[in-house]
TrEMBL record:
Protein name: SGNH/GDSL hydrolase family protein
InterPro entries: Ester_Hydrolysis_Enzymes (IPR051532), SGNH_hydro (IPR013830), SGNH_hydro_sf (IPR036514)
Superkingdom classification of source: Bacteria
Signal peptide: none
Entries under Pfam families matching the protein: Lipase_GDSL_2
Gene Ontology molecular-function annotations: hydrolase activity
Species the sequence originates in: Nonomuraea spiralis
Record keywords: Hydrolase
Length: 202
């Protein structure tokens, strides 16, 4: 009598894992961290965490579109040295302007336009966002003019401009959101900025 071979259970193929989107940043101390806030706890890292994306953070404290800070490089140089040689990300966020007040707004706007043109040339399909200067309190009048110059450069490049100066970041207890230097966010302050940015990027 013929023996029927046992039937094998059909094998299930696990679904292919989809790589998380990559979000790169170029920025200043607000982006890379300052004081007790390390790079992996800044608003940049936290916004990527909220979105389930992979962050790559470039830049340095004191830098800007024209200001070289102690590291001796502008945002454009940070982009070229730290990011441009990598595969194109899904999203690039350029955040800053806080340190560019000693230049004319025309110079700042021109530097921003040149950086955006280089980014578009290298990465034509990457979504790019420009974030204006971050001021938590005591915002000087020049900062608004720098912001406007950056907004104009972004608009001319067809890039969305996000304006943190339109938001109120300091709570009724300032020490909760602002470090003792009166400039940079605490961990809680970074989390507030991250929640705003993540919502803007969705």
């Amino acid at each position: 009598m013929a023996v029927t071979p046992p039937q094998r259970a059909p094998q299930t193929v696990p679904p292919a894992r989809t790589a998380a989107p990559v979000m790169m940043f170029v920025g200043d101390s607000f982006t890379v961290g300052s004081g007790p806030v390390p790079p992996w706890r800044t608003y940049a890292s936290e916004s990527a965490r909220l979105l389930g994306w992979q962050p790559v953070i470039a830049g340095a404290g004191g830098t800007g579109y024209l200001n070289k800070g102690k590291v001796g490089r502008t945002f454009r140089r940070s982009f070229e040295e730290e990011l441009a040689w990598r595969p194109p990300p899904d999203v690039l966020v350029i955040s800053g302007g806080h340190n560019d007040q000693r230049w004319s707004t025309t110079q700042v706007g021109r530097a921003a336009a040149e950086l955006l043109a280089e980014v578009r040339h290298r990465w034509p399909v990457t979504r790019v966002f420009v974030i204006g200067p971050i001021w938590l309190e005591d915002t000087p009048s020049k900062a608004y003019r720098v912001r406007d110059a950056l907004a104009e450069a972004a608009e001319a490049a067809g890039v969305p401009f996000l304006d943190p100066m339109r938001k109120r970041w300091v709570t009724d207890r300032p020490s909760e959101t602002v470090l003792p230097d009166g400039v940079h966010p605490t961990l809680a302050g970074h989390e507030r900025i991250a929640a705003w940015l993540a919502a803007e990027l969705l």
